[in-house]
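Notes for week 9. Today we move from apo structures to complexes. The key idea is that a small molecule is not decoration. When we ask for a structure prediction with calcium ion present, the ligand SMILES becomes part of the input, just like the chain. The input block below holds both the sequence and the ligand string. Read it once before you look at the output, and try to guess where the molecule might sit.
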Amino acid sequence: MKRLSCMMLVAASCSLPFAEQRKQDSAVTALPLLALLGAVSGSSVSCSSLSASTPSGTAAADRITSAPGDAGSGFFDARCSIDGVRGMGDNQGSTDVFSLAATGSSSVLVLEWNGKKITNGVGADFIVFENSFNQNGNATTRFMEPVIVEVSYDGSHWCGFNPIYSSGTYSQNPANWTRFAGTTNSYFNQDSNFMNATTLFTSGSSGGGGDQFDLSNLVTGATSGYNCSAVASNSGCAAGDVSQLQGTSSGQGVVYVRMIAATACTNPNAGGATFPQDSGAYGGGPDMDGVIARNVVSRP
Ligand SMILES: [Ca+2]
Ligand SMILES: [Ca+2]
Ligand SMILES: [Ca+2]
């Protein structure tokens, strides 16, 4: 989450990242802002009253496996991560989100698909939607809260995609953050910008946005998900695990998707420091809107 400076609030060129503003101001002006929130999102404030709608051939993660930071209400209601995706485009963050902590056990969220699993099809297999947005309309000064994404077939063995950040001090340019979630703006909105599966999985601003992950790109070893063992169990990722995750037989494929605030994890390219954070985040963590997959099939 992020607080806005007064300068940003009065700047005519600044599109209001509403969720972030509301977080800062909620203690003072909760009722008017809640009313406005409903108007902005076109939906109820309570995520428990919403349900996901996705294009034919896709499915949203609809079961919370683990959410230690779930407080059951507001931006700390984990149900906001399975109630559908409501992206707000380039200049505004979705408010339909579950906010993770930047560090510690509450920086972790694990989701799954009831009775289903993801298999490895052609191209990207699932999309993680956070609520990044451009500042002052500039795509290279984006407010991001990067997320390390890992997958598992058994809830014990986790494999990731080798996220890389090597720019030292914090960079607001998403080009410096590769294979993280939370770095690409969200365009798909099930209420106001619905689209078919092909469009949803199209890269760029004509598609659904969010950060796409292809199971073909899973990597083994220490760089797989950077072993955030301080905040989540991690037994590493062996070649056999990748084969399990990419397979289509019974017991194979992806059952769980785990998202961890990068700020909770050690960056191996930074001498033991954690991945850096935008100063505008004021200690908050990523805001998870939802995860949508294709190639979803039944599992036992
Ligand atoms: Ca694939
Ligand atoms: Ca965010
Ligand atoms: Ca949501």
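Residues 3-44 have pLDDT under 50 and may be disordered.
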